[in-house]
Amino acid sequence: MDGLTKMWVSFIGIGLMALSAILVVFARSKTRGWIKGILTLVAFVILLLGMLYSFISIV
Known about the structure:
This protein is mostly helical. It has one domain (3-58). The protein is 92% helix and 0% strand. The chain has helices spanning 3-30, 33-58.
C-alpha cells in the first residue's frame, strides 16, 4: 500500500472513532432503555472498525 492510500485509510479510521464517540454521547444523553443499549452497541462496533482501519494503516 502506498503512502497516499495509508493516509486515507487512517483518516477513515479516525473518522469512525470520532463517529463512535459522538454516538455514545448522544445515546447516553438523549435516549433511554433498550434504544440506549442498541446505540451503544452500534457505537462499539463502529469503534472496533475504526481501530481495525487504524491498525491496517500502520501495517
